[in-house]
Structures are given as structure tokens and as C-alpha cells.
Specification:
The chain is α+β, with helices and mostly antiparallel strands. The chain has 17 helices and 14 strands. The strands form 3 sheets. Strands 2-3-8-5-7-6 form a 6-stranded mixed β-barrel. Strands 11-14 form a two-stranded antiparallel sheet. It has a two-stranded antiparallel sheet with strand order 12-13. 37% of the residues are buried.
Length: 419
């Protein structure tokens, strides 16, 4: 094995061989430097993985909370939020969206301001007309019901409501509720609906947002044909802006498309804040590792002042001396990168696959109007290995700039005279 190592060293340049020798003759210092970089970069990578996973979860919850990754709406909707606006040729638009390979689900909706009444009890609600086949794939809130069932395509005068609304009206599955809306002529219109399902999200505000009927019943109530929006869930949320632009280019007749970030600026701001804090923590951790390496490298240069001065006196130029110290940094970076991958890789992978449970079973938490998942997952992919290499080399190379500059500026005559 020693012979193989000698043969490998013989293939390296003189500067690299000298750098490796300097690192191997003081194993303790080298191991401490590698350990410092590895620990700092590993913590930074684990933090980056959890932040990416948290942001991905947050965006998914926002999109599947009713907004969608992209929403196709009439052009003036973003300003007025008028529920009476309707899409032009919505069936054609919906068909094209569902054929798109990047679309996981596209579902149409109609929203109507109305009032529910049972006996002397009344409650104002936003009634949503939906496609029963695709709505549960786009809206996570109706995937599981506390009681009853979800809407069926052939339902007539059937309704699914939130638990807080049901409790306020003191009604349950099978009860009939009077629905009152204002139609396009300004006249009030009332009809009877049977409650077939009740949703319990553990949050009264979110519960009150669930009041769904079929598209056909919604059209009859509003007196307006067509749909007001098409919510799109993408297979890859990272392509949301490109997908929006592509959809906009295909639309005509005053319709447009908006992303979840444009519809919910507060959610987009929360994502930005998470990114900023993650970068600050990463910079701090890398800086701590950098200072440790810089101290170690400078100590090594000071210990070898006479040696470096002798090399300079024998004709080694300043560029070669700089390359010598720099080669040591690159070698440390390579060792640290491999050690970081070995240490942080399994942890990051575990957090991505298994996650961390932040809520007990049966409990729920809301943030910015969306339900937070009980288990928080990190993220793991090819980015991990790229980041591990970048952070490790960045810490060692930057930390070696001052020691290398110091070594280059040594005066051979004065150094040898003082030694």
C-alpha cells in the first residue's frame, strides 16, 4: 500500500507533492482543520436541506389550499376579485391545461357570495362550485371528511360545508339548509340544499371557507354560465413562472394567468424571509469554519518561515510559493468535502425521507391561512453534493488567502538572519 501511495505521489506536480507532505507531517492540525470545516459545512447543509423542504412544503400547502400554483382568471380579477367575472371559452382552456404534461391537475371553480339559513340561524358564506372529480386533487382540505361523503358528479342540491359553519347553524349530515344569493338581475334567489359532508380542519377560520356545491348547481344559483377560475397544480412548482408565461401566450379574449406568489404576496414574502435567514445562518457557519482554517494555515506558515525563506532563496518564485499554500488549501477542501458528504449526507437524506414530527397526531397548526403538515421534511438531491463541494472549497480557499499573501511577502534574507 505504501508503494502505491509513493507511485501516486510521483504522478503529482512538485508543488502538490510538497503541499501533501506539509499536511501529512502534522496530522493533528490537518485533522482538526478538516473536522472544523466538516462540522460547519455539515450543519449549514442540513439547515439548507430543512429550509428547502420547509419552503417546498409551505408552497405546496398554499397551492393546495385553494390558490393553486397558477390560476387562470379574467384579466381584471386581480384588481377587483369580482366573483361575477367569467372566463372566455373556459372548456377549451381547461382541455388544453389538462393535456399539458407539466400539469398534475387543473380544476374549474365558481365562487358566489351567499347566505345559509336553518331555522332562525343564518351564516354568510362564500359558496364554491366545483368539479367533484378533480377538486379533491387540487384542494387538500376536502380529501378527508369528518363525516358524510364528498360531492359526486351527478349530485343535485348537495353541499359540503366546514364544521364551524355546521356548528354555527346546528346542523348535521342529511339536514336541509336554505341557500340565498343575489343573481345577476339584483334579485335574491333561494334554494334548498342537503348537507352530504362535513369537513373538520381543526381551525374555525379555515372551516368557514369550505362550502362547496357542484358547478351545475352553482351556475343555477348565480344565473351566470361558465366558470370564474381554473386552478392549476403543477408537477414541478419550480417551473411556475415559465408555465404562467406559456399559458398567458395561449390565452385570448381578456383572460390571463397569475402565480400563487402574485395572488398571495404575504406568502411569497414569507418564503423570501426563510431564504434570507437560511443564507445568513449558512454564511455564519462557513465564516466560523473559515476563521478556524485561516488560523491553522497561518500557524503552519509561521512555523515554516525559515523553510519558505530557504525555498525563496533557492529560486522559488512568489507565484510558486503562493501556489504551494494554495495547493494545501485545495487538498484540505477536497478532504473536507468528502468528509462533509459522508457526515451530512445520511442525515440530510433521513430528514428528507422520514422528516421531523412537529405536531402530535390529531392536532393542526395554521400559518398565513394554510394548514401546516404535522411532519416537516427536508430536501435531498444532486444539489447537496454541489453545495458540499462549493462550501468546503470556499471555506478553505478563502481562509488561505491571507496565509498565502503572508508567505509571499517574506523577505528571505531577513527571515534567515533572524532564525
Amino acid at each position: 500500500m505504501r508503494r502505491d501511495f509513493t507511485r501516486l505521489m510521483g504522478r503529482l506536480s512538485v508543488t502538490t507533492r510538497y503541499a501533501v507532505r506539509n499536511l501529512t507531517r502534522n496530522y493533528r492540525r490537518t485533522l482538526l482543520s478538516v473536522a472544523g470545516i466538516t462540522i460547519g459545512c455539515s450543519i449549514a447543509l442540513i439547515n439548507i436541506g430543512m429550509t428547502r423542504g420547509k419552503i417546498e412544503m409551505f408552497i405546496r400547502n398554499v397551492a393546495e389550499g385553494g390558490i393553486g400554483h397558477v390560476r387562470v382568471v379574467p384579466e381584471n380579477w386581480i384588481v377587483s376579485h369580482d366573483s361575477g367575472l367569467r372566463l372566455h371559452e373556459w372548456r377549451k382552456i381547461l382541455g388544453e391545461l389538462r393535456k399539458d404534461p407539466g400539469v398534475a391537475v387543473a380544476t374549474p371553480r365558481v365562487r358566489i357570495q351567499g347566505m345559509l339559513a336553518m331555522g332562525t340561524r343564518v351564516c354568510g358564506v362564500l359558496i364554491t362550485g366545483v368539479d367533484p372529480l378533480t377538486e379533491p386533487k387540487a384542494l387538500r382540505y376536502v380529501r378527508t371528511l369528518e363525516s358524510g361523503r364528498y360531492l359526486k358528479p351527478d349530485d343535485s342540491h348537495a353541499m359540503v360545508i366546514g364544521k364551524s359553519t355546521a356548528e354555527r347553524l346546528r346542523m348535521g349530515i342529511g339536514d336541509a339548509v336554505v341557500v340565498t344569493v343575489v343573481d345577476t338581475t339584483g334579485a335574491t334567489k333561494s334554494d334548498m340544499f342537503d348537507v352530504v359532508g362535513i369537513v373538520n380542519l381543526g381551525n374555525k377560520q379555515l372551516d368557514s371557507m369550505v362550502c362547496q356545491v357542484t358547478l351545475r348547481d352553482a351556475e343555477k344559483l348565480s344565473g351566470l354560465p361558465g366558470v370564474g377560475e381554473i386552478s392549476v397544480i403543477l408537477k414541478d412548482p419550480g417551473d411556475v413562472n415559465l408555465f404562467r408565461d406559456r399559458v398567458r401566450a395561449s390565452l385570448s379574449g381578456g383572460d390571463t394567468a397569475w402565480t400563487w406568489a402574485q395572488i398571495s404576496p404575504q406568502s411569497e414574502q414569507a418564503v423570501r424571509i426563510n431564504y434570507i435567514f437560511s443564507r445568513i445562518i449558512t454564511v455564519i457557519l462557513v465564516l466560523v469554519a473559515l476563521l478556524g482554517v485561516a488560523s491553522s494555515q497561518l500557524t503552519a506558515v509561521l512555523e515554516r518561515k525559515r523553510e519558505l525563506a530557504m525555498l525563496s532563496a533557492l529560486g522559488m518564485g512568489r507565484v510558486s510559493i503562493f501556489r504551494l499554500v494554495f495547493s494545501e488549501a485545495l487538498t484540505l477542501g477536497t478532504l473536507s468535502g468528502l468528509a462533509t458528504m459522508a457526515l451530512a449526507g445520511p442525515i440530510t437524506y433521513y430528514l428528507a425521507r422520514v422528516g421531523i414530527r412537529i405536531l402530535d397526531s390529531g392536532k393542526s397548526l395554521t400559518a398565513l391561512g394554510t394548514v401546516v403538515d404535522p411532519v416537516m421534511h427536508g430536501d435531498f438531491g444532486s444539489w447537496f453534493f454541489v453545495y458540499a463541494a462549493i462550501l468546503s472549497y470556499l471555506a478553505t480557499v478563502v481562509a488561505s488567502l491571507y496565509p498565502a499573501w503572508y508567505a509571499v511577502r517574506l523577505d528571505p534574507a531577513e527571515t534567515l538572519r533572524m532564525s
